[in-house]
């Protein structure tokens, strides 16, 4: 899919064709669309296809014709079996002499905000500012998802206090994996954005430098929050693992104590179940009840001893 947008009278609007100072948004483009943009704007196909690789890392690359490719990881949220999973995917931003091209494998909430006009002050003819606004919205989206992860972590922790189920523990693992993805992507994004701050790739004006500083602050805050939440989540998982292990030890201790108690009457009954004439009480009337009484007394004594030693 390929769409064209341009700021007209301060409002970003859709256009039917490529115009000067327009923004071209490509979502999972096919080869015909890639070939059309490549031939029309002179952009290398590798630049247009770079962001279509899910494993592509964040970086900045300059072409011989002064076209600039910037790969930035953006956060995405997917729902599976009632649980939310967070991850990242690359967004390609290509800067030409007159246009800006964004390429992504899937539709995402960051670009949708610009398409719908929810982001104010967007001017497609101010390329540097437009790119910084995209980077700022990406950083804000990271922070929003991190707060959601924190809320989900607290809810899962509350559920684990009531019942130790595998489902909650698996969700903890998914959240920890999401934080690892976020941390890796944020650090790579920070390195890429710092390259822009040098002003060698894109000319920055005073207002742009202020916006770039805000972007770096948001990214740094997201990295710090990610590290904090990751440490908290890891500590919580270790604590619950210790609780589960301790509960298992308690259950095994009780089972072992019960086994010992039950072994005493079983042993006594086994002796008197032998077909031997010289066994004690063999000729005494009511010997069965006497054996039962002996076994009951021995069982009670065993329970008292185990209780005294705090094993029961």
Name the features:
single chain; seven-stranded mixed β-sheet; 312 residues; 7 helices; 7 strands; alpha+beta; rod-shaped
Q: Could you describe the 3D structure shown?
A:
- The chain contains 7 helices and 7 strands; from the N terminus they run βββααββββααααα.
- By secondary structure, the chain is α+β, with helices and mostly antiparallel strands.
- The protein is rod-shaped and about 115 Å long.
- A 7-stranded mixed beta sheet has the order 2-1-3-7-6-5-4.
- The N and C termini lie far apart (69 Å).
Order of helices and strands: EEEHHEEEEHHHHH
Residues in β-strands, percent: 15-25%
| Number of DSSP E strands | 7
Report the major sheet. Answer: 7 strands, mixed
Oligomer: single chain
Helix content: 55-70%
Number of helices: 7
State the end-to-end distance. 69 Å
Concise structural overview:
The chain has 312 residues and is an alpha+beta fold.
List the helices and strands and how they pair.
Layout: E1 2-8, E2 11-15, E3 23-27, H1 31-41, H2 45-50, E4 59-62, E5 68-80, E6 83-95, E7 100-104, H3 109-115, H4 127-162, H5 166-197, H6 206-272, H7 287-308
Parallel strand pairs: 3-7
Antiparallel strand pairs: 1-2, 1-3, 4-5, 5-6, 6-7
